[in-house]
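Worked example 3. Consider a protein that binds acetyl coenzyme *A.
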Amino acid sequence: MPKYAHIIGWGKYVPPNVLTNDDLAKTVDTTDKWIREMTGIHQRHIASSKESTAALAVYAARDAIESADVNPQDIDMIIVATASPEYPFPATACLVQNAIGAGRAGAFDLEAGCSGFVYALSMAAGLIRGEMYNTILIVGAETLSRLVDWNDRATCVLFGDGAGAVVLRGSETPGGVMSSVLGADGSGGELLIVPGGGSKSPSGPETVLSKMHFIKMNGREVYRFATRVMATAAKQAVERAGWALDKIDLFIPHQANKRIIDSAAKSLNLPPEKVFVNLENYGNTSAASIPIALCEAISGGRIKPGDHLVMVGFGAGLTWASCAIEWTAPKPGAIPLPRAATSRLRYAWSGFKSFGWQVSRHVDALVSRVIDTVERKEQ
Ligand code: ACO
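Given these inputs, the predicted complex is written out as structure tokens:
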């Protein structure tokens, strides 16, 4: 029997701190009117200094795990899609694995810019269909505010922070992720880039002075690329799923710019009620934008079992990714209180265990060193 990869849980987290267009107009030469008209964005959420990418990812992951009603110990693999990881290494996914107590899970990060979440969804669905793994947690999490030059009006108005997550599980019931399309055009890599801090230009006083650790973007070219690729990628995913375009019930695009979304919707012949847009509240949250939009579409009653969804992302790389999903999850119910309490207990216990392992690793290293010293003296 073929295996299908179904989304069985979802969750999101956005930092509470809101930065409006008017707030931005106090620090850079811009206006609320320009930002609304050119992008559709009204405000964005910005992580506090205590909220890192892993912290946002963990909140969203816990939400998704609870709504899926799975035990973290049953998760086989964790993929975190991010362009703003906690560190160059270890992977943010490993930090999430530790924080949620998913002791059996492998974990890695996936970097495909704003297409990262759909790339991860496609990878996870492939692993499930190939019967390598059965339960996979995917998180899209970003703190792009840390990579933005807050004096560059061309980029600082666009981005926001947040995280969204889903749990995928294999089943023989038809449905779930029915097709995906992944693409890249590395010749456009320099159009959207953080040039400093990597192997080519390691961080140092010079890279900082020349602001190479900030996002540099050729907005006009990225715009042209996005309008070209979004509708095409959506059509390809629909075709691979064996559907017709008019079968789409909800289009969930990457939330970068309302004009880009409108142009794609027009090419796909989709009326506004079949297109999900929430970028006015969040700005472009990169790899987190599609899972955050999915969560809001579900909580807003825009998705019901049997619906045909299409997601499309595009971004740095340049990359693009689309997928067609037949929605099979029942409407979410409130998590019963006793279960919410046991989840909290489970996370507290896994935090305690993780701390215990760290202490035992230190003690082990200390004892080994003492034994080595004694042995060397005896020789
Ligand atoms: N406020 C006021 N004026 C501004 C601002 C601003 N925030 N930003 C730029 N301008 C000015 C420019 O200086 C320019 O002025 P000039 O004509 O006097 O020189 C004018 O507005 C037009 O600037 P353009 O950059 O040419 O404007 P454009 O029409 O391209 O719109 C925008 C800019 C909204 C950024 C658009 O290019 C866009 O959305 N591009 C796509 C960006 C995107 O989606 N990036 C994310 C990709 S996903 C990822 O992986 C992170």
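Take a moment to read the result before moving on. The mean pLDDT is 94. Residues 30, 34-35, 38-39, 113-114, 153-154, 157, 192, 217, 219-220, 222-223, 226, 256-257, 284, 286, 315-316 surround acetyl coenzyme *A (CB under 6 Å).
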